[in-house]
Amino acid sequence: MAALRGGDATAAGLRLGYVCGVLPTARLAAFERVLFRATRGNMFMRSATIDQLVRDPKTEELQHKAVFLIFFSGQQSFARMAKIADAFGAHRYNYPAKYSKRAALLSQALTRLDELSHVIDHVVARKEALLSSLAARHGAWRTHLARQKGLYNALNLWNYDLTRKVLIAEAWCPASMIEETQEALRRATSRSGAHVPSILNVLETDEAPPTYFRVNKVTSAFQEIIDTYGVPRYGEINPAAFTVITFPFLFGVMFGDVGHGSMVTAFALYLCVNETKMLALSARLRDDIITMAVRGRYMLLLMGIFSIYCGVLYNDVFGLMADFFGTSWTETPPRHGGPRELKAHGMVYPFGIDPGWHRSANELSFGNSYKMKLSIVLGVAQMLLGLGISLVNALAARNALDVWCDFVPQAIFMLSIFGYLVFCIFYKWSIDWVAEERVAPSLITLLISFFMSPGEVPAEARLYAGQERVQVLLLLLAFVAVPWMLLAKPLLLRRRHLARAGYKNVACRPTARDDPAAARGLLRSTRDHDTDEDSVSVASSNNGKAYAEEFDFSEIMVHQVIHSIEYVLGCVSNTASYLRLWALSLAHKQLSMVFWEMVMLPPLQSCRAGGSSWRCAVPLFFGFAVWVVLTTAIICCMEMLSAFLHALRLHWVEFQNKFYKGDGKKFVPFSFQTMVENMDDEE
């Protein structure tokens, strides 16, 4: 807006002058007071607020403004009011006195506004068309940019040989894909029209290779669980191979219920059947929870199947005892409130817990005892599996010290105490104490007397004849295993170091100054000159380096002491940690029973009492709706997540710490698709 002068002080034939303009709304009141005082009231002013924001011509800011019109008399008053208006930052406009001039000015302004609106509409249409065409090509440009960025980042890692004027790239490749890589290089040479073909040489190096496992859509989720804890070391057994079965099974032990497992299985089946649509949906929404559920759909499927399996073992359907094969016990107890009797001598329920325990006086105590012992058995079995894997790792690395100084004493300690406890559990289960008219021995009392009073077995803890001598022998083996585990390895390593102290400089690794090619690993590995099992062990323990670090006996001794104490205490704490299988299974069943008895049972009892159909249908409908919401939200979501996290902890801490190092490097192949996905994640 250009600041224009107001009309003449006195129009033709008129004695009054006028001033019109625009000023900020906040200054309007002060402006009117100053004018009133300056003219001593000899003026007439009218103002109106402009609804829209007006852009200030000086500051280019949008402000709230008001238009004003002042009538006065006298030429001096015009000059005075013009100065006051300019002082308040008002913009004065020329408003013609004649109607014809005002009409022409209005017509001119409307014409300009119409022309400007047409120009703006045309510019907006052009801009929308241009942006639409750019948006259609945006995805291709992003993909091209990601590929070029990754390509040049990879090229920056190449070395240039000045003498032969060639580019040399050193990279890792799976041994099973060497021929495919050579064929890809030949195709690239043919397509590019290069005169000199690319040469692929397989090198021997002393560096630790990265770890690579072939996974599919079923095993990828389990491998991600392992990689989250740590990438397996090269040559180390991959725990994911066992986790595929043990993880959903331990989850099923805690979440065992046919009804709830069926709901999880149905949800997982829906994700698996519609996996293409679900993957596209997760990529579009980029929600962490949806992405985890879609990518772990086959894990959810196995978790649901094992939950159904364990639910059949427990005979639980939505927290209620089921009767799939017919109970082996009489339906009603005999007279005098005694225990129920078997329908036939030696009759056994075909599979799982007999439903006759349902509503019995000792149902809870029997279920707790059974699941507690089952948790101990499963925990010791999985920890022994971890020890067995550590033995395989040591044999594969040809490390005799790890076999005789780690595995053997650890296995003796574990089997002497907790293996014996598992044996006692199965022995107690195998005897019909009622038929023998004996009180079943207490395993807790047995375990306490095992440590507190060796050689003495209380009457309430006796299982078999000669139990005292067996327990004393096992306790002695456990005590012998501790110093064996603590001292054997450090002392043998010190003895080996002293025996080789005079041969440190016989075979040294070439340096970059002597032979750059050998320093980069382009020559034959030093392992070809030293095939002794101890040298291989040293190389593997030093992350692939063929030279050993400086020997520090005190550091090795401290490390072994920490490792031994951690294992001994860990055997106790880890075994107790597996009791979470019993605790969560008990909580799952009790919570399911509470939901059924508090929500569904009252409407069912009202229907059984009789009355009109509406008095039965309405409470039953709302009760069923509330029960479904609680079951889905609390049990199938929150408690399922709790069981998932507990199963994850059992694998990471109790199982993998027996053998798993997890300090390897993950093999990340050059992939354009991975680069595009990483760019999407960064955005």
Describe this structure in words.
- α3 crosses α20, α6 runs parallel beside α18 and α6 (240-254) runs antiparallel to α19.
- The protein contains 20 helices and 10 strands.
- Mean pLDDT is 85; it is low at 1-14 and 505-548.
- The chain has helices spanning 28-39, 75-87, 99-155, 178-192, 220-229, 240-254, 258-273, 275-285, 288-295, 297-314, 363-396, 400-429, 443-452, 467-499, 516-519, 533-541, 553-577, 580-609, 613-655, 672-682, and strands at residues 16-24, 44-49, 54-55, 62-63, 65-73, 91-93, 159-161, 166-168, 316-317, 320-321.
- With 683 residues, the chain is of the alpha+beta class.
- The strands form 4 sheets. The chain has a 4-stranded antiparallel beta sheet, with helices on one face. It has a two-stranded antiparallel sheet with strand order 3-4.
